[in-house]
Amino acid sequence: MTRRLLWTLPPVALLGVFFLHPLLLVVRQSLQPDSGGTSFQPYADVFASEAFREALWTTVWLALAATAGCLVLGFVLALIIAFVPFPGARAVARFIDVFLSFPSFLITLALLFVYGTVGMANGLWTDVTGAAEGPFRFLTTPWGVLLAEITYFTPFVVRPLLAAFSQLDTAQMEAASSLGARAPRIVRQVILPEALPALAAGGSLVLVLCLNEFGIVLFTGAKGVTTLPMLVYGKAILESDYPGACVVAVVNVLISVGLYGLYRVVSRRAGA
């Protein structure tokens, strides 16, 4: 018992020093207004502000929309990779594993090269039509952020789906096909029920990641798109309102921890 306790103490101490202690400092700072003392006034001020409500709404709808887009696109891509034979299918599946390690700003930078104000698409348009500027300007809008998030996070849905499809009993699909069922019906009645746990696990993870995404919003330069992480950055760096920034950070952490708990439950049930 004593030996087990000795082995447990070092990782617990490291966790406390490098994670719990900074988190407690953020919580403590959120309760210390600039006027001094300890109170919930910073929370009241932040919750009453229009900027916080708009940032919360923007964060939620972007995360939900991106998750829905990732689920639809990820399911279609996983179906093609797993069940439609084509040269290079294994290479594509391996590339998805590599893609998961890419930083989000790299994908956003690539989209800027293609759809930015001076990107390839606008350049091609001006070359062909002779216009002074191209029509593609959506990247600096909420739709550009949404496109970047769907592009970056879709592989997080594809990966668990491919794992689920690899364990699917192909005899069920062969039996359905021999009975005259067409591909859409096979997908709907045979494949989709088996994929639901993996879809739920991947969707839960994407939702958590989208709620905390900072780099994509920052690098797209979307005007008027302020999410909770961006609001933390603005209050801390631009306004020097550290109690307000800590309040928003605490809210963001609570939402993320709650959703992560949901993700763990779903993943456990899905066997992911």
Report on this model:
This protein has 272 residues and is mostly helical. The protein is 78% helix and 0% strand. The chain is built from 13 helices and no strands. It has helices at 2-30, 41-48, 50-83, 89-99, 104-115, 120-129, 142-153, 155-166, 170-178, 183-211, 215-220, 228-238, 242-270.
Labels describing this entry:
272 residues; mainly alpha; 78% helix; 0% strand; globular
- List the total number of helices: 13
- Portion of residues in beta strands equals under 5%
Mean pLDDT: 81
Low-pLDDT runs: none
- Structural class, by secondary structure, is mainly alpha
| H-E order | HHHHHHHHHHHHH
E-strand count: 0
The percentage helix is over 70%
> Alpha-carbon distance between the termini?
32 Å
Radius of gyration: 23 Å
Sketch the major β-sheet: none
The shape is globular
Quick gist of this model?
The chain has 272 residues and is mainly α. The protein has helices at 2-30, 41-48, 50-83, 89-99, 104-115, 120-129, 142-153, 155-166, 170-178, 183-211, 215-220, 228-238, 242-270.
Topology of helices and strands:
Layout: H1 2-30, H2 41-48, H3 50-83, H4 89-99, H5 104-115, H6 120-129, H7 142-153, H8 155-166, H9 170-178, H10 183-211, H11 215-220, H12 228-238, H13 242-270
